[in-house]
Model the fold of this input.
Amino acid sequence: MTQQAYETPTRVLQYLEGGLSNGEVGVIVARTGVGKSALLVHLTLDAILRDLPVLHVTLRDTVDHVRSYYDEIFRAVAREGGGRDRSSALLAAERHRMIHSYRDRAFDVTQLRANIEMLKDIAHFEPRILAVDGLDALGFETHMAGLVELAKELGLRVWCTVKVKGDEKPLENELCHKCAKGLHLRPEGGSVRIRMYKNGEQQDLPIALDPNTMLVMGEGNGPNAQHHRPHPADCTLYSGGANGTESAFGELAERWGLHEVNFTFDGHKQGRTRGTYLLSPSELVAGDVSLVYVSRRLNRTYSEGSLIRKVLQTLWHMVSRSQQVFVVGAIQDDGTVVGGTGWSVELARMWNKELWVFDQEKNGWFFWNGEGWVSGTPTIHTVHFSGTGTRYLNEVGQAALNDLFQRSFSSLD
Done:
């Protein structure tokens, strides 16, 4: 398979006339799972490597999670030969970056201002770049005036990520036009495209980004497109550890040296416990959904019950963290997939994830192209992917998974 040259997405700064100026607020807008946080990390990393102090504020993650996310991006950039080597980049990050988390408390610009003053007085750390990750549209509207005032008063360049829903397309344009600079990310096949807003005008940039690392990639999407392939040590499988397909995915991930996260909840029996992640009640609620809606989407009936609801919530966490979704099951005449795992297929379709289903009855892989299922041959080419499917994995399905991992990782150093 042909390897493609990747580069960091800071090339977008050229189109933004170098990025933000002191006192300006910029926004990165997209739906869940498109790559807002990854692009934000690239922009702050660019500042860090130019010795500009960065304060990274997260509204939903822990400090350790954000730090590990920077490490992931460092690995991806270093592996592609971009910028400094990873060790010096990590050293620069620790010296020129602070991370604050508002995960367990309400975000407040007044409190943020006090924290910045404390960093200056006590830690002798004076940020020039402020990154605020995790706002939704309402939160941004609420805090925007305060952030603009803070940016102007302290001479900061402020980047914010804003999550919007799939039906809020007019809002995406409105949010971007309100800021000095705006970047609207939208999935397109197996890549992410950027619409730029500045000076009251908008422009579609002529670059495509990898949907996980946000590195600039070559053209080509679809069921048989060629892609850059990550090293297995950089990859993470998100699954549930149930017997059957999920356990098979996990065993292959361990065999090939991939990281593994298996989501579970109290009362759930796992067949595989490597990388177990116990979802808290509040985390489960994040993936809550109406069973009436699920029944309508899948053309079958699901009655109210704690177990099935928690299973569906767990699938939400698996798919939301992934850029590729692999499922083993059976595609029905209406295009849905048999069983509760069919909800992972519906989530992937709603969020425009790259979606593959291995149909054990038809003995073949099928790719969702946005309109229907087409046959193809998949490879794992993103560092975050999910694997799930039927508990009744047969020899044909097992062979398909073996071949998937062999095809994806066998020739890599």
